[in-house]
Amino acid sequence: MRQKYLLHIGVIVLIFLFISGCTELSDLRRIKEIQDAKIRELIAENEQYQGKYYKAIEERNITVNQLNKTIAEQNTRIATLEKSKSDREAELERKINRLNLETRDLKNEATRLSEVNSKNQTIISEKENEISNLKMEKDSLSTTITEKDTSITNLTNEIETYKNEMVSLNEEISKLNTSIQQDKEALQKANDEAKKLTSDLNQAKIDYEKKLSQLKFKPLADLTPLKEKLEKYLQGKNITAITVEDSQKGIIISIPASSLFEGFAEEIKPDMIPILKDIAQILKEFPDNDIWVEGHTDNQPIKDSPFYDNLHLSSSRSLRITRFLISDCGIKSSRLYAVSAGEFHPKADNNSPESRNKNRRVDIVVLK
Predict the structure, then answer these.
(1) Is the pLDDT of residue 218 over 60?
(2) Second label for 124, Cα 20 to 30 Å away, from 59, 76, 250, 300?
(3) In terms of C-beta density within 10 A (0-12 exposed, 13-18 middle, 19 or more buried), how is residue 109 classed?
(4) Residue 253: left if φ>0, alpha if ψ -120 to 50, beta else—which one?
């Protein structure tokens, strides 16, 4: 394109000279010098604007279009000057040949510049590939950094969660310490109660031994009427869980703990209250005989209960029945003795649930 551009310029210059009617060789030389100067300027401009190659092409195309338009206009004028052209054709032919030679040289130079430009384009393409690779590496590094930032954020959140859990654990530890302290206080209170119960039992034992020594000098009472009355009452009420037996120490009224109490509770079941009152009324008919209220258990360790062992449980239950007989049934307190037997006086072995159920009982013993 650049060669055609230069050729068009040369043709335009020749046409311009032709139209102006230059007839002397000196004018042609001056024109050539002008043309050479113009060509040098164009070469300088071409070298100056190599970096703007595409823009120059666009401008050149615009110029070519304008020149084509100008040529078209001049062709019309040339047609009118055709007759005078013949005298100048030979000279113009020589000039044209010379211009062709120069144009060829310019074409070769343009080819060389095109090759240089092609090499430059190759270099530019390689650099663009390098830039593209660097951008990809940058994107990869950005992704890696983002992932690391996410990991750091997650770790920070986990650390914060662990801190919160530590705070919660410390609060729970504090609550547990408070609970342990309360349990210690409750245990101390239970120990104090146990000591009091032990003291009461010791005192009861002393009173019993004293009473027993007094009874040694008394003849044994015949409690057969009492036994018969109790059995008649139980049969009339169709009560089979409560048993009555005659022993060496007296009449034993044995009541299962499951009939009297609910689980480890101390309160007497409501349906047993009228039965106990009826039994107490029969006992009041024999006012000369003392009464033991014995609490018995099986040999299983106590768990999840306010009682710390079986002695504590049996003591609590014997005392509860004793208080009931005094306060609710009107039996004189001087006749009653609360006895905690615990697991140490079983009626049966403790190898099965049935036998252990027999051992969990309260015995009301009317002494002979």
Answers:
(1) no
(2) 59
(3) middle
(4) beta
